[in-house]
Specification:
Length: about 525
């Protein structure tokens, strides 16, 4: 099924399978699945849907957190196997059912009996009121201040340890500082140990090798440098015999000079190597000490040194307990005053718009033939949070004189849908779900009310995609797209099918809704008039 923009109305006889559409979308968006949904004889049920998210910032943010690339569309796929296993994918990347739920509430909202929707959630109700009240900048400012408050309160809690705890912590911190300071660490020390330790471990071997090199180069009879000196004399003789040996003489002298440098550097290595066991033992002990400190205070020598500085700050804080508490409490009190002022402004803005919203919604409900209904936005003062000190709740009662309850507790499915339609119409500019599904919003309504519902759905569909399952001709005639659900017998099995109706088929379907199975000429004419009026 390809759901178009605007208003799509779905009609069909009772039991034809209209609820399959609702259940399918619900499952795609994270609803709990059971093997009972799998067709008899099949091994699995696979659901796939494509969603346009080009303007849906909330979904894009969630996808970004999940490291899922997306541009303007996403494909959600879910598979339920006979074993009871359920798999979910977004753009072929596996995701949890919980992730589907988090994304789903920003993709589609259901107004149907026993279906949850965003407008039932208190946080979302508060967001709507705040959007209309223009509280965005105040809430951003409050969020920063509230985080600062939590940090200060946490710091105060740390400081407000019992005297016994403070003394115990002071003793511990001072011992740790003493242990770190006594080690007299250097940030580059570990690198130096790694470089020098192999020399100390192999000191005797190094001396043996360098001693032999020195002997070969200079000390022994027939050494390299002695032989090169002899060659130099032979070159002088060649020169006396008239042979041009300038280049040879130059290279030999250069070789003697370079080998002399090699000899001196080798002798420095020989003389500089420490073969005393004490030096090796000292460096090994140093290495073990650093390893021990790393196991307690940090992964590197620098981290150990930094930890020592942090401990010194903690000691100062604990030793100056009274001064710190007094100073901190003053900061907290000042911040609380500022936060309270912001919360009061936010609450004042909420109060102003809440009365206006409630009045408009009651008017919408009256227009939907719910004349005795009551609607209020409750603002109950609670403790301060990052969103203010108001508990915002949408409250409703279908009858005057009765107690109002949170809207999520409204019992009737049709009633829920009409209340939600009134809400959606009133707050449409501040409602950020692109697709809304109304399931049998016309339950218990007359033709006159149905006509009003159809007009409101049509108006609402200008800004978002609306899908409505209906039994009323007035609503069906308002649709931009009319889909008929019906059953067809194929190979001794009922198959549910969906068909997008053309104008002639719509007239016939609407006439059938008006007159029943036996379609009259009057019903056809009435259906055509209704359709022409709404086109």
């Amino acid at each position: 099924m390809d759901f178009k923009n605007g208003l799509t109305v779905i009609t069909g006889e009772t039991g034809a399978g209209k609820s399959i559409i609702i259940d399918s979308i619900d499952l795609l968006l994270g609803q709990r699945a059971s093997t009972g949904i799998i067709r008899t004889g099949a091994n699995s049920c696979i659901l796939i849907a494509t969603f346009d998210i080009s303007k849906n910032i909330n979904v894009k943010n969630i996808l970004s957190d999940l490291s899922i690339d997306s541009e303007n569309e996403i494909i959600i796929r879910r598979q339920i196997d006979l074993s009871g296993k359920s798999k979910a994918f977004i753009n072929d990347i596996p995701v949890s059912v919980n992730s589907l739920s988090n994304i789903g509430k920003y993709l589609v909202d259901f107004y149907a009996q026993n279906k949850s929707n965003m407008l039932f959630e208190e946080n979302y109700q508060r967001q709507i009121v705040d959007n209309i009240a223009g509280n965005d900048n105040l809430l951003k400012k409050l969020s920063v201040k509230y985080d600062d408050l939590k940090r200060l309160l946490s710091k105060k809690e740390d400081i407000e340890k019992s005297n016994t705890d403070r003394e115990r912590m002071l003793d511990l911190y001072k011992y740790q500082i003493q242990e770190i300071n006594k080690a007299n660490l250097n940030a580059d020390e570990e690198e130096t140990i790694e470089k020098e330790l192999p020399k100390l471990k192999n000191a005797e071997k190094i001396q043996t090798v360098t001693k032999e090199m020195i002997s070969i180069l200079y000390k022994q009879d027939n050494s390299i440098i002695d032989n090169l000196s002899i060659i130099n004399k032979q070159i002088d003789l060649l020169q006396k015999y008239g042979i041009n040996v300038d280049n040879i003489s130059k290279n030999i002298n250069l070789s003697i000079s370079q080998l002399d440098d090699v000899y001196r550097e080798t002798e420095e290595i020989y003389s500089g190597i420490d073969i005393t066991p004490e030096a090796l033992d000292s460096m090994l002990e140093r290495q073990q000490l650093i390893k021990k400190l790393k196991s307690k205070y940090g992964k590197t020598v620098k981290e150990i040194i930094d930890y020592g500085f942090d401990l010194e700050d903690k000691v100062k804080t604990l030793e100056n307990y009274d001064i710190n508490i007094e100073k901190l409490q003053k900061e907290i009190d000042e911040l609380l005053k500022e936060i309270t002022r912001i919360c009061e402004q936010i609450s004042s803005n909420r109060t102003k718009v809440s009365k206006n919203i409630s009045k408009k919604i009651v008017s919408e409900l009256e227009d939907l033939n719910m004349k005795n209904s009551q609607f209020e936005i409750s603002l109950e003062k609670t403790e301060i949070t990052g969103t203010g000190f108001d508990k915002v709740q949408f409250m409703f009662s279908a009858n005057k004189g009765e107690k109002l309850y949170p809207i999520a507790l409204v019992a009737s499915g049709g009633e829920i849908s009409r209340v939600m339609l009134a809400l959606s119409t009133t707050i449409s500019e501040n409602y950020n779900v692109d697709t809304i599904i109304f399931d049998e919003i016309d339950t218990g309504t007359s033709g006159k009310t149905g006509d009003k519902i159809g007009k409101k759905l049509k108006s609402l569909s200008k800004n978002r995609q609306i899908i409505s399952i209906s039994h009323l001709a007035q609503i069906a005639s308002s649709a931009d797209t009319h889909v008929k659900i019906y059953k067809e017998l194929q190979q001794d099995r009922n198959i549910t099918k969906a068909k997008v109706l053309n104008k002639e088929e719509r007239i016939e379907e609407i006439a059938k809704i008006i007159s029943g199975a036996q379609i009259t000429e009057h019903a056809l004419k009435h259906a055509e008039e209704m359709l022409n009026c709404n086109t």
